[in-house]
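Tokens in:
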């Protein structure tokens, strides 16, 4: 093991636009070079920053040198992976470390069904490597062009009431602190740091390695079929029992719902994918109509109904290896919000959101509202901490890069989520501050105390995290 995986590096280079030619070596004896003139943007191009120096280290020693120089120059440091977070959680004007060159699979333990990887490996590469060994991750988010350390750092999730957020699959990790100390963490070694670092927000140090608990490779049978919001909410418990990975898509300004079941299968692979429907209609036509609707907002409700009828009103089935079914393309640049509420509040909260849209005719909401379900856990800053949860994801697309008014929709949604005890997804934009998080998370004071102990000078903070902790 230990082979570097370079297949995704070109894609990462595209995400760092406007690269200048300036380089800054940390010291005469140092091999580490920071690059000036890099403009970082997240995938959706909704947030960005211009770090003073941008680094792509290849070893722990190089990262230590970067942290030493940051201390000497009184600079802050942010570590980035795939840049997919739809918020400014990864942005900084000081030092940025991109982990894409520390992307090796270090060890595969087939007996324990565990894999240890460097923090910079993309899950898209890890999925392929695991498949070669007859293994898989039990659950994945929609996107795998994300780094292992980043995906746990923000609490990425999928759906499945018997499955937790992705960090629950982590059984060990190594953390490099602001002082340069290397900490090994697990349930038995540094257990408090382990519970905090499994969802670390990038504020505890640099995650160097992650060990995931895997399962034997498996295939999934996906079935999508039309229903109504009333039916799904009235029989929510039945749906949760019928499918291991159940979610549904609600089309605002209507009763329309697409129910999606995904379950392990022994059936041979099959696909209903079609370029005509998935791209010509589902992407290009939709983007054009959404752009038109920026001039005529009342079109949005018609677009939602029309595309449900066009693409989601019949039964569709697919069979494939697990990671290919879990993943799907987020084709449009977009603004999103995603909060977790106690699962028993699902019906009440969703009906309140529906009523709010009906009572405010000028308020428009793009499809879909994606509704997923997650098992509770013990991770200190997990939105599913100590409770089974429903994640309710709302979206507003940016057709041809054009922003669509969303503030009123966002505020109404946040108000409903807070009313029902919601906690926001850490990777996604929200308006919460420390006062909110102190109410939301019983373990928040413990996390804050640990963060201050590991990073007393705030080296790993940025404006996003200052709102969280101050």
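Residues out:
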């Amino acid at each position: 093991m230990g082979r570097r995986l370079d297949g995704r590096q070109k894609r990462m280079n595209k995400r760092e636009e406007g690269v200048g030619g300036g380089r800054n070596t940390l010291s005469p004896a140092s091999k580490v070079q920071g690059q000036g003139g890099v403009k970082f943007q997240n995938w959706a191009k909704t947030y960005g920053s211009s770090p003073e120096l941008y680094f792509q280290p290849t070893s722990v020693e190089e990262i230590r040198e970067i942290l030493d120089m940051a201390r000497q120059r009184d600079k802050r440091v942010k570590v980035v992976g795939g840049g997919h977070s739809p918020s400014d959680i990864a942005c900084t004007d000081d030092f940025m470390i991109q982990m894409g060159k520390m992307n090796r699979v270090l060890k595969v333990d087939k007996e324990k069904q565990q894999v240890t990887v460097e923090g910079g490996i993309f899950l898209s590469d890890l999925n392929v490597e695991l498949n070669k060994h007859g293994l898989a991750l039990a659950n994945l988010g929609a996107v795998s062009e994300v780094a292992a350390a980043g995906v746990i750092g923000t609490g990425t999730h999928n759906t499945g009431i018997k499955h937790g957020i992705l960090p629950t699959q982590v059984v060990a990790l190594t953390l490099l602190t602001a002082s340069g100390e290397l900490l090994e963490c697990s349930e038995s070694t540094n257990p408090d740091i382990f519970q905090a670092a499994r969802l670390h927000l990038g504020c505890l140090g640099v995650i160097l390695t992650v060990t995931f608990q895997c399962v034997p490779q498996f295939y999934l049978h996906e079935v999508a079929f039309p229903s109504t919001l009333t039916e799904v909410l009235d029989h929510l418990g039945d749906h949760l029992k019928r499918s291991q990975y159940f979610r549904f898509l609600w089309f605002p300004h209507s009763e329309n719902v697409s129910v999606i079941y995904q379950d392990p299968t022994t059936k041979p692979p099959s696909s209903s994918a079609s370029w005509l429907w998935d791209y010509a209609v589902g992407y290009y036509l939709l983007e054009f109509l959404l752009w038109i609707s920026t001039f005529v907002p009342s079109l949005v409700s018609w677009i939602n109904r029309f595309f449900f009828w066009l693409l989601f009103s019949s039964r569709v089935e697919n069979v494939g290896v697990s990671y290919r079914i879990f993943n799907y393309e987020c084709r449009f640049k977009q603004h999103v919000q995603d909060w977790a509420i106690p699962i028993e509040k699902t019906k009440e909260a969703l009906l309140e959101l529906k009523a709010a849209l009906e009572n405010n005719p000028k308020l428009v909401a793009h499809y879909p509202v994606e509704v997923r379900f997650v098992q509770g856990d013990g991770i200190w800053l997990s939105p599913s901490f100590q409770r089974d949860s429903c994640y309710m994801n709302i979206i507003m697309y940016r057709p041809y890069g054009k922003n669509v008014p969303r503030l009123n929709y966002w505020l109404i949604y946040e108000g409903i989520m807070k009313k029902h005890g919601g906690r926001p997804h850490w990777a996604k934009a929200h308006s919460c501050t420390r006062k909110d998080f102190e109410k939301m998370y019983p373990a928040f004071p413990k996390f804050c105390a640990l963060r201050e102990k590991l990073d007393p000078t705030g080296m790993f903070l940025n404006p996003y995290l200052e709102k969280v902790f101050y």
